[in-house]
Design a protein that fits this description.
- There is one protein chain.
- 48% of the residues lie in helices and 8% in strands.
- By secondary structure, it is of the alpha/beta class.
- Strands 2-3-1-4-5 form a five-stranded parallel β-sheet, with helices on both faces.
- It is globular.
- It has one domain (4-280): Rossmann fold.
- InterPro entries: P-loop_NTPase.
- This is Sulfotransferase family protein.
Length: 285
């Protein structure tokens, strides 16, 4: 196999709860290394530590975006060559560990692992990358730093997402999209749908216009109902010749595409938002 350190990464992202874990499991089955410090959702905790920091992001994006590229350089190092870190790189990791999750025990554990990672047997893999839903927020920076990146954006019906218990991205990143964080739980579905629309429109527009054939949009609902076409798209995108489609299909639960919002009163949503759900390829009835 080629030395994957010389290749661009495979990155998987999407609004939280979109089904990125399933895609990550399939991509790993295809022979790609997505890190070894993962949570149950297959999120790469290195990325979380470095970049799941909304306050930090809102500062550096306006004052010093080179800090974002420094973080990506460190991430690349830890996932590929694992060369000795510079003193400034170590300081960057240590500062991130102080602010991520308020520097709790998990943040400290991730920091220690990043400073002394497990060796990678790169000959076992045909490529590398990571899965972390929040990656879509950094997509323009990831693309600029890794021109050869292949990005997989997973999208799920926004109305199902609006009533999901997973609203972390709304509360973490909503204000960056001009979405007011609701102080009433009854208003969460409206705010969640607005965030879902803006976040996905941004990712899809950037990916299709700027990344072209290095951007792949996976419709999670379509994957669940009719797996083979979506799996074929994924295998072709990653240049995987021998597709174990039957094996990968066994990981997919058709019930995951159920329209859970059917019990809800859709009149609470603005008609323009419902139309945008349809424009993004989903039912809104």
């Amino acid at each position: 196999m080629p030395d994957f350190a010389k290749q661009g990464p495979i990155v998987i992202g999407g609004v939280g709860g979109s089904g990125t874990r399933l895609i990550a499991e399939i991509v790993m089955d295809m022979g790609f290394y997505l890190g070894d410090m993962l949570n149950q959702s297959k999120d790469l905790l290195y990325f979380s530590l470095l970049f799941k920091r909304p306050i930090w992001f809102s500062k550096v994006v306006n004052l010093n975006e080179q800090e974002i590229f420094r973080g990506l350089k460190i991430l690349e190092n830890r996932l590929t060559t694992q060369k000795k870190l510079t003193g400034n790189d170590i300081k960057f990791i240590e500062k991130a560990a102080q602010t991520y999750r308020n520097g709790d025990l998990l943040a400290q554990k991730i920091k220690r692992n990043m400073l002394s990672p497990n060796p990678i047997n790169r000959q076992l893999y045909q490529g590398w990358g990571w899965k972390e839903p929040n990656a879509h927020l950094y997509l323009p920076y990831i693309h600029r730093y890794f021109p050869n990146v292949r990005y997989i954006h997973v999208i799920r019906n926004g109305l199902n997402m609006a009533f999901s218990k997973n609203q972390q991205q709304l509360f973490n990143w909503g204000p960056l999209f001009g979405v007011t964080i609701p102080n009433n739980s009854m208003m969460i579905p409206n705010a969640s749908l607005t965030y879902w629309i803006k976040a996905n429109e941004r990712a899809v527009m950037y990916g299709t216009k700027q990344m072209k054939d290095r951007f792949l949009l996976i419709h999670f609902d379509q994957l669940c109902v009719n797996p083979t076409p979506q799996l074929q798209k994924l295998a072709e995108f990653l240049a995987v010749d021998d597709g174990a489609f039957d094996e990968w299909s066994e990981k997919i639960d058709p019930a995951a595409a159920t329209l859970k919002y059917k019990e809800a009163d859709l009149r609470k949503f603005h008609p323009n938002d419902l139309e945008k759900v349809r424009t993004l390829g989903f039912k809104a009835i």
